[in-house]
Design goal:
259 residues; alpha/beta; Rossmann fold; four-stranded antiparallel beta sheet; 8 helices; globular; binds adenosine-5'-triphosphate; nucleotide-binding; ATP hydrolysis activity; transport
């Protein structure tokens, strides 16, 4: 196993207004409750749940963008929740592509510079081949070579999202967390990007956590599915046989499948 979540809980304070004044924190809301989950090396694990079920919070906790309230996150038998592993080492091994990742593209950097940055940082010895690597990354996410000289503002939302996927691949991480990363792409592009991600995953033995509200999109792509409901993992399954499933919410999700 490459990534293990042990009893991960994340709560947020809830502040209530009291007669014109904001009171001090008087309660807490658990976005993620006691989640235990394992990601195997080379596996694509789908994490499916309705909006607000805690999927993004879980990804943020893995990336240490949010501190855990309790629980542990282990990467390859090393605890990463405690901060002993430096960010730069964590990000070399685990990358997150979020739905709004494109807002993280620097507006004054060309796509070439955006893709060169991780190559320079993590693989300085590849300086001579860096441009070729950028071109092959662009090709792999279905973008034209002339995108290299463009700025993010000159690309569509879907094209920017593909640049974010290429930037994550440039790091050559072991794990990529995709948080609704392809949700904004049109159906044809979505399917070609997923095909590419599958190919890269198999070639490089990558592990993916594929977060989505859309069970259908996980079917051809994921090896196992974890179902999240109101902050908890309520079911993990591999076989698409509804009769084997236990939780009512999973059955509701199955109603959305198109044969
Ligand atoms: N920074 C925050 N402060 C307070 N509450 C938060 C914060 N971030 C998330 N939450 C709450 O935690 C719960 C889970 O949110 P989260 O974004 O993880 O859900 P999600 O399953 O990813 O939803 P979506 O699919 O809509 O992105 C929600 O009730 C949300 O309002």
């Amino acid at each position: 196993m490459i990534l293990e979540l042990k009893q991960v809980t994340k709560t947020y304070p809830v502040r209530r207004r009291k007669k014109g004044w904001f009171s001090k924190q008087d309660s807490e809301q658990a976005a993620v409750k006691q989640v235990s989950l394992e990601l195997q090396r080379g596996e694509c694990l789908g994490l499916v749940g309705e909006s607000g079920s805690g999927k993004s919070t879980l990804a943020q906790c893995i990336m240490r963008l949010e501190p855990l309230t309790s629980g542990e996150v282990w990467l390859d038998r090393q605890p990463i929740h405690s901060g002993k592993v430096k960010d730069v080492h964590l990000y070399k091994r685990v990358q997150l592509v979020a739905q709004d990742s494109s807002s993280s593209l620097h507006p004054r950097m060309t796509i070439r510079d955006i893709l060169l940055e991780p190559i320079r940082n993590y693989f300085p010895e590849r300086k001579a081949q860096a441009l070729d690597i950028c071109l092959s990354l662009l090709e792999s996410v279905g973008l034209e070579a002339d995108s290299l000289e463009k700025y993010p503002s000159q690309l569509s939302g879907g094209q920017k999202q593909r640049v974010c996927i290429a930037r994550a691949l440039a790091v050559e991480p072991e794990i990529i967390l995709f948080d609704e990363s392809v949700a904004n792409l049109d159906a044809a592009t979505q399917s070609s990007v997923l095909d590419l991600l599958k190919k890269v995953q198999i070639e490089r033995q990558l592990s993916y956590l594929f977060i989505t509200h859309d069970l259908q999109s996980t079917r051809p792509f994921c090896d196992r599915i974890a179902v999240m409901y109101q902050g908890e993992i309520v079911e993990v399954f591999k076989d698409w046989d509804e009769s084997l499933l236990q939780h009512e919410y999973t059955h509701t999700l199955f109603q959305t499948l198109v044969e």
